[in-house]
């Protein structure tokens, strides 16, 4: 059975979570208490958000979705954890349908020629109880460059709706799009692209 946002079962779960039900007690907010293992990206709740300064007037936002990939999480030895994700460029969305089409075209991301962006971690450095610096190789528009993300652990536990063990993170970083050959309208549309990523992962073993 599928539930809508305002269906009774979903609402009941939400009220229970707010009230401090057993489901909420299963969520841990200390990264060391999360379960180690192999995780797959949960695409419905994973978003790769980006923003650019548009002609000096606004920080214009967009998002990529339908992300796939794996996380190998080792909470006893976090530095050995690994992340690999694939982002379909065709999924790009803004508030302008015309711009969406332009971004997919050959003057921007050229989704027909370079359908995916990928990130493969190469190192994880712990900087706090729930924080780490993750360095890896980002491939975008056919170009691969090392990039760094600041990653913050949000929480982990059994999802009250689908009963799957889930862990979630937020990551932020900044890249220069010209480094990847995406130079359209620089500097009027900023070269710096700010990333804000919501990552949800479901344990597989």
TrEMBL record:
The keyword Thylakoid does not apply. Keywords: Signal. SUPFAM superfamilies: YceI-like. Residues 1-25 form the signal peptide. It comes from the Bacteria. The keyword Signal applies. Residues 38-202 form the Lipid/polyisoprenoid-binding YceI-like domain. Pfam families: YceI. Transmembrane segments: none annotated. InterPro entries: Lipid/polyisoprenoid-bd_YceI (IPR007372), TTHA0802/YceI-like_sf (IPR036761). This is Polyisoprenoid-binding protein.
């Amino acid at each position: 059975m599928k539930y809508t946002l305002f269906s009774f079962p979903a609402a009941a779960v939400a009220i229970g979570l707010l009230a401090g039900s057993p489901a909420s007690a299963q969520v841990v907010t200390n990264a060391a208490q999360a379960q180690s293992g192999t995780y797959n990206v949960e695409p419905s709740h994973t978003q790769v958000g980006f923003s650019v300064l548009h002609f000096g007037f606004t920080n214009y936002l967009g998002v990529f979705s339908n992300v796939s990939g794996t996380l190998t999480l080792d909470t006893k030895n976090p530095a050995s954890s690994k992340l690999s994700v694939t982002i379909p460029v065709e999924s790009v969305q803004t508030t302008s349908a015309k711009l969406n089409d332009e971004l997919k075209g050959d003057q921007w991301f050229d989704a027909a020629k370079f359908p995916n962006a990928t990130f493969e971690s190469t190192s994880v450095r712990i900087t706090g109880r729930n924080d780490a610096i993750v360095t890896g190789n980002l491939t975008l528009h056919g170009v691969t460059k090392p990039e760094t993300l600041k990653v913050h652990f949000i929480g982990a536990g059994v999802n009250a709706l689908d009963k799957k063990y889930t862990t979630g993170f937020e990551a932020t970083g900044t890249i220069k799009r010209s480094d990847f050959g995406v130079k359209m309208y620089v500097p009027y549309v900023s070269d710096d692209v700010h990333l804000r990523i919501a990552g949800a992962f479901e344990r597989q073993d």
